[in-house]
Design brief:
Elements lengths: L2 E9 L6 E2 L10 E10 L5 E8 L5 E10 L4 E5 L5 E3 L4 E6 L5 E8 L1
Antiparallel strand pairs: 1-9, 2-8, 3-6, 3-7, 3-9, 4-5, 4-8
Length: 108
């Protein structure tokens, strides 16, 4: 296993989700150990993060959560972990263009 991090700057607006994880390769599992969203805009925003399973099933990890100006939201961290299986990915979007940066830490 190896530790990795993946920054995704300037997440887009509602309706245009940004992928914040590479699609997990065949015969691989990634364990997400941290996922933070930071408000880099000029006003409070809302943000959402979804898991997209290989079979096209989707589910929200957070939906329209408020990220205060200059603040951050920890989506995954502490005792919480998230397993992504082969073909899975995460997407995120926010209420204002280019207003949120995401940083994900994971084990491969």
């Amino acid at each position: 296993m190896s530790f990795k991090s993946l920054p995704t700057p300037s997440i887009g607006v509602t309706g245009s989700p940004s992928t914040i994880s590479a699609t997990v390769a065949t015969s691989t599992t990634n364990t997400i150990i941290g996922l933070s969203l930071a408000n880099v805009g000029t006003a409070p925003v809302t943000a959402s993060v979804k898991i997209i399973k290989a079979n096209a099933t989707t589910a929200f990890l957070i939906k329209d959560a408020i990220v205060p100006l200059g603040g951050a939201l920890i989506v995954v961290g502490g005792d919480q972990k998230l397993v992504l299986e082969a073909g899975d990915s995460l997407t995120a979007y926010c209420s204002a263009a280019s207003s949120v940066d995401a940083v994900m830490s994971y084990l491969v």
